[in-house]
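Support request, please re-run this one:
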Amino acid sequence: MFRSIILGFLIVLCILGGIVGYRAYEFLSVPPQSPGQTKIIFIESGQSFDAMAAMLVAEGVLRDADGFKLLAKVTEKSSRIKAGEFEVSTGWTPLRLLDYLTTAKGVQHKLAAPEGRTMRQIAKLAEEAGLCSSQAFLKAASDPELLKKYNVPAENAEGFLFPNTYLFTRKRGDDGTYVVEAMLKEFWKQAEAIWPTDKPSGKALLAFVTLASIVEKETGVDAERPRVAGVFANRVARGMLLQTDPTIIYGLGDKFTGNLTRAHLDDASNPYNTYARPGLPPGPICSPGLKSMQAVAVPEVHEFYYFVATGDGEHKFSKTLDEHINAVNKYQRRKNKEKKE
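Re-run finished. Output below.
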């Protein structure tokens, strides 16, 4: 009798063991779907493993949250899940899913922000990259706390959004803070090349970035940047008006149609009109690159006070107004001739 009970008990254990083994085999080797389909999932920073596992089940990329938690515990990967956006498949086994979530960088979104772009243009690029809306970007770029954190002495981050190519793991929701913050961090990282020790702040920093932004817009030739910066330094030293078209265009904003008129040059109500107002404009007019910033830090020493575009991407620099007028007439005639041809 006792032997029969023991035998029965062993048979039950074998059956239960077989069931458990089969379920374990099924869990580990059979994916939720076959063939699978791609899913985009978000794992939030600070999200608990239990909440994450439940989310994976809800998204259909996992069938058993408890089994997944046990698998992560056995493999000692419970604390190695990364936050971010991930592209996964319902055709993956739990082990493959766990390996991916603990090793992958996540989906990377590229934001290419070239030199000379305004804050609004960069906001549009961020939206096109799928990182956040333009409105969310601009809101973050005007956040007083964020500006204070990165020592931006202005009401917004215009000029301090360093131009570069960035790779981002997109955040859930519509928040541009992480994008703006990365660009502000890059500004100060690049600034080490200019100010390795004492860095300017307040009005001095704003004036520096403002002038660098003007240099950025005035020439696309790196070799010319120190000379252009020297022209503006000479004009400021003599109390002359800067008389630079890009500042007026920035001040016009959406009103600018592509044609700068005499009325625009005479309009003193435009705070960025450097033909009518002395000194620098209220703030930067774009994001300057490192070359423009270096040019303003160490401008070329010379006696030039004027320059005009030659039509081939470069400029003719002049010491006197008469020389400048002659240069303008020369290159304007060439321009008109090319239009007729």
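The first strand starts at residue 38 and ends at 43. The first helix runs from residue 2 to 29.
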